[in-house]
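May I ask for whichever protein you like with its backbone structure tokens?
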Amino acid sequence: MTATALRPALIACSSLAALAASACATPQSQPLPVAGENPMGWLAGCWRTEDGAFREVWSVDGNKHLFGHNTFRQGSDPGTVVFFEQMRLVETGGTWTFSAYPNGVGPSDFPQTSARPDRAEFTNPAHDFPQRVTYQRDGAALNAEIMTLDGERSQSWTFVPCGTAPPAEDGPGKTLP
């Protein structure tokens, strides 16, 4: 068969490959929402810590729901999942509630106590730890913090959109899964 005869088949195969790759692509972070959109939509997308140990993914389902999950991995690349959590954000009667299911157990509900277009805080004083969960966008990054109400115990993470490589580890043009 000649190269001319193969050209339509090659074009069709490369088009299918591109379509398949885009369907499996990692969702990127979303810009801050505009009026009429989900006010928590700025959480949507795939987020990871610089070292890739933590990954958190949020999906928008209409104007009043977001669904998320996160994993923490330890060990060599890609590592073993040692913690996972399913999460849900639901708006009811003008109030958002963050529901967490750590390692599949829950829910633990945290009603929203503070909100800005780029920041949300949820608290549950009756919960052992955490009692406060905060998310805040900082440009293209997402900051998350969990803590006790008195701030005595806290943990925080800075997430970047998935698919962006840490400059020191992977070099220019590389992406992480």
Remarks:
- The longest helix spans residues 3-23.
- The CA atoms of residues 97 and 111 lie 4 Å apart.
- The first strand starts at residue 45 and ends at 49.
- The mean pLDDT is 80.
